[in-house]
Amino acid sequence: MALLEITNLTVEFATAHGSLRAVDQVSLSLDAGDIVAIVGESGSGKSVAMLALMGLLPWTATITADRMSFDGKDLLTMNPKQRRAIIGKDISMIFQEPMTSLNPCFNVEYQISEVLAQHFGGKRRSYKPRVIELLKKVGIPAPETRLKAYPHQLSGGMSQRVMIAMMIACEPKLLIADEPTTALDVTIQAQILELLVELQKANGMALVLITHDMAVVAETADRVVVQYAGQQVEQRSVIELFNNPRHPYTEALLSALPEYAKEKTLNAIPGVVPGQLDRPVGCLFNPRCEYAQDLCRQQPPQKSEGVLCHYPLPLKVASNSHSEVTL
Amino acid sequence: MFKFFFKRLLVLVPVFFGVTLVAFGFIRALPGDPIEVLAGERGVSPERHAELMAQLGLDKPLWQQYFSYVGDVLQGDLGTSLITNRSVAEEFFELFPATAELAICAMLFAIIIGIPAGIVAAVKRGTLVDQGIMSLSLAGYSMPIFWWGLLLIILFSNTLNLTPVSGRLSFLFEVEPVTGFMLIDSLLSDEKGAFKSALHHLVLPTIVLGTIPLAVIARQTRSAMLEVLSEDYVRTAKAKGLSPLRVISVHALRNAMITVVTVIGLQVAVLLAGAILTETIFSWPGIGKWIIFSVFSRDYYAVQGGLLLIAACVMVVNLIVDLLYGLINPRIVH
Predict the structure, then answer these.
(1) Does the residue B259 lie in any domain?
(2) Do B240 and A97 touch (CB under 8 A)?
(3) In terms of residue numbers, what domain contains B219?
(4) Which end of chain A is more exposed for a tag (fewer CB within 10 A), N or C?
């Protein structure tokens, strides 16, 4: 049985201009130890889908799904208290902005030991040795001296390490990392990613990595989900996806990478992701797609072979694929 | 820490001159003078008037009067009341505990009800509960104190006969003033029922004086909580699997308190101003009533000294608020 199973998850927000569909029929299945990357532009519903799983969306959101289960437990029918027993313990999530995600009024020890006391009971203070151990694990030097530090005394990278220590404290089965490196320096980005993969291997937990950095995807993930305007347009293994993208959007994303640029300018995708008021008829990507035909402008496509497209790009036959991953 | 205090002390210099100048100027800008008021309807001959004014030193040019007053104050002498002939400082500190007791009770009333009301309104944002709390607080904020006091007296004292109309204690009791705080003194005395009587007398003035601060605190707590509740760290707290109560009362409230404490500090000044009306309505023998009396009798020194000491109280409270910031918010180190 899969660790996490989401089928046809849809999230709609009530706004002043009617309802906005941020996540549209997204499905995801994950086994223990998997690393899955979710990629897509800003506004493609990557974070929202995972926040829905965590139950962290504001009250304006309506969540529907055919199935949403974790470790055999149905997340859709359980009450808030049952869900809180799982959140932070078996499923945990780290966020994009480490500097604002830690509470400025509490020190490092308090914030980490709090989650341990919440899920395992007992006094917060009794977890001090465990907190030191966790800080050591995430690579914070001299952790004893950092226990009483407040978030404003930590750098961005250090804050993200504390955040990770907090979220792996209960040894979760699934860790969701929502653009964990976006707000950090490039050198620190690599360190944090390495740390996440290391922890993933050591604890055998599943890892969902939300990112818009294709290089990160190539380096860390086994499987990739490409999202566009709330829809999953393609889902396959990393090697297959990089060598043989089937959806025009995936192909366009890949060719926009600086590594693939053949001239002085990068290959940008024209236009922007559709918003609430300018959603096109038919395939949502059709106004920006170079292969779009009349059918694409009239009817929404159905998913086939993991690709949401009327005219998927052809499958390459001879695959001596490994050498082609050049990132 | 030392540097912080030193800086704060430096600020006192302009405040001192500002307060003394304003008090000195305003009371003299009122028509009439102490001699005319004392003489009353009988009047006084111009010669005798000039003689008495000269005796009190009030015939000199204003700037001379001001500087000699400031000189006296700097030497610790607030002057002598022109009416009672007692030292202004002595009169002030005799009456101050009554005002302090009322102000503290009113502030506690405002905080104990205002903060939870603001939190509930923020958490239940947009619902009837929120709208109800906010409408009530707007009504409270707009309520003229004197009218609100009279309404409460009519309802609770006249119609329901639940509370006394005025004073600090029933005439049946004789309580030795030890601290000047009636609640404490009545407990210290052997008189049975005195404490209950003191408490009864406090209820209405506390509500009347506390209403505006209560409304302000509730509104500010709500807006501070709304801002904090949308912060990333609140999402983190929820992601830890903490209960909503803990997320709100520990993670959000601590941050929201930074704003709320500022507002509470500012409300102290409002409270002391409100005390003047409240004490007059309820015949509460405190500073407010004394200042009003002093203004009406043109008791120059009492008004000047009283206002200066009230300003000092406000400054002390603001200093305490600044120190509290450091306790609530670790980013502030004095």
Answers:
(1) yes
(2) no
(3) 98-296
(4) N
> Does some domain include residue A19?
no
Q: Is residue B78 part of a domain?
A: no
Task: Using the CB atoms, write b or e for A38-52: b if 16+ within 10 Å.
Answer: bbbeebbbbbbbbbb
Could you read off the pLDDT of B108-125 as tens digits, one per residue? Answer: 999 999 999 999 999 999
pTM score, whole prediction:
0.82
Residue B324 phi/psi, 5-degree rounding, is: -65, -35
Whether residues B232 and A87 touch (CB distance < 8 A) is answered with no
CATH number of the CATH domain containing A104 = 3.40.50.300
CB contact under 8 A, A103 and B242: no
Q: Are A10 and A182 in contact (CB under 8 A)?
A: no
Domain boundary among A169, A186, A221: A221
Residue B191 falls inside a structural domain: yes
Tell me, what DSSP letter sits at residue B155?
I
Average pLDDT over residues B283-299: 89
Residue A66: strand pairing partners: none
Residues of B with a Cβ under 8 Å from any A Cβ are 231-233, 235-243, 251, 254-255, 328-331
Judgement on whether residues A216 and A248 belong to the same structural domain of the protein: no
Residues of A in contact with B231 (CB under 8 A): 100
- In-domain check, residue A131: yes
Q: CA-CA distance, B66 to B50, in Å (whole number)?
A: 19
Q: How many helices (H) and strands (E) does chain A have?
A: 12, 13
Domain count, chain B: 1
Q: How many CB pairs under 8 A join A and B?
A: 71
Asked if A118's CB is within 8 angstroms of B242's CB, the reply is: yes
Confirm whether B189 is domain-assigned. yes
* Phi, psi values for residue A168, rounded to 5°: -100, 5
Distance of alpha carbon B129 from its chain centroid, rounded? 30
Q: Tokens 């899920």 identify what position?
A: A119
Q: Which two tokens stand for residue A1?
A: 């049985």
Q: Are residues A248 and A185 in the same domain?
A: no
ipTM above 0.95, yes or no: no
Query: How many folded domains does chain A comprise?
Result: 2
**A259 and A142 belong to one structural domain:** no
Q: Looking at beta carbons, which residues of chain A come within 8 Å of B226?
A: none
For residues B65-88, give the mean pLDDT: 87
Asked if B233 and A152 come within 8 Å (Cβ–Cβ), the reply is no
Along the 327 residues of chain A, how does pLDDT read in single tens digits?
789 999 999 999 988 888 888 998 999 999 988 999 999 888 888 899 999 999 998 888 999 999 999 998 999 899 989 999 999 999 999 998 888 999 999 999 999 999 999 999 989 999 999 999 999 988 888 999 999 999 999 998 899 999 999 999 999 999 999 988 887 888 888 888 888 898 899 888 999 999 888 888 888 899 999 999 999 999 999 999 988 899 999 998 888 888 777 778 888 888 888 887 888 888 999 889 888 889 999 899 988 888 899 988 888 765 454 444 444
- Residue to mutate among A83, A89, A105, A134, with most B CBs inside 10 A, is A105
CATH for B222: 1.10.3720.10
Q: Which residue in the set B235, B239, B329 is minimally distant from A92, CB to CB?
A: B239
Give which of B125, B230, B232, B236 to mutate to test A binding, by max A Cβ within 10 Å: B236
Answer whether residue A318 is part of any domain. Answer: yes
Residue of B nearest to A58 (CA): B230
CA B209 to CA B220: how far, in whole Å?
18
